[in-house]
Write a structure and sequence with these properties.
Elements lengths: L3 E2 L11 H16 L6 E2 H9 L12 H13 L3 E4 L8 E4 L1 H4 L4 H13 L2 E2 H7 L9 H13 L5 E3 L10 E4 L5 E2 H16 L2 H31 L3
Antiparallel strand pairs: 1-8, 2-4, 3-4, 5-7, 6-7
Helix pairs in contact: 1-2, 1-3, 1-5, 2-9, 5-7, 6-7
Amino acid sequence: MQDDIPGSFDPASDLDPNEIRVLGVLAEKEALTPDNYPMSLNAVMNGCNQLSSRDPVMQLSEDVVHDTLQRLMQRKLVNGIAQAGARVIKYEHRMRIKWTLEQDKLAVLTVLMLRGLQTAGEIRSRTGRLHEFKSVAEAESALQFLIDKYPPLVARLERAPGTKESRYGQLLGGPIDVARVDAAAAAGGGASGGSTGARVAQLEQEVTALRSEVDELKAQFAAFRQQFE
C-alpha cells in the first residue's frame, strides 16, 4: 500500500489542521445545536478542544482560533456575522455553498474532518446525528460523490494488510500520508491509555470552558432582555 495517497483538493489552497478542525466544528454544531448557531469565538474554541468525537484531540488557544477564522473568511469558507444587539461576532461555514454539498455529503466530510481515517461502516455509525444513513451502501454512495468531485474532497485508501475494509480520508489538507497518520494515532492511543490523570485534567478544562460559554450566553440574554424593559 502506498504511504501517500494522491490528492488534488488544490495545492495552492490546501487547509492546515487548525482550519480543518474549525470548519468541521462549525459544520457539526450547525446540525447538533442549531439554536446556538452561528457560533461565537469561544464556542468554536470549545468545539475544537472537546475530547469526545475528535481525532486527534487538540488544544487551541482563543488567539489561534481567531486567526484561523480570519484566514477561513479570506478563503470565503467562513462568514463573520455581526448580529444586531450582540456584543460578539458569530461565525458560520460556507462549505455547503462553496462545494455544492447536500447534508448527507456534508455529514460524511464533517466526520472525516473531525475524526480522521475511517471505514464506511464507522462513518455511517458516527454521522447519525448529522445525517442518518439507512445502510453502509448509502454512506458509500455519499463517499463516492465526494471522491468523484473535481477536485476530489475524499480519497479511498487501499486496504491495510490484515483488514477487511478500506478506509477513507478527506483531502482538504492535501495528500494523505497514511504512515504518518497511523503512527500518530498509535502514539496518541498509548499516551491516552497510560495517563488517566492527564485525561481527567483535560475533562476538567472542558467543563470549565463549557461553564464559561454558559455564562456568556446568560450575559447575552440579559442584555437582550434589557432592551424590552
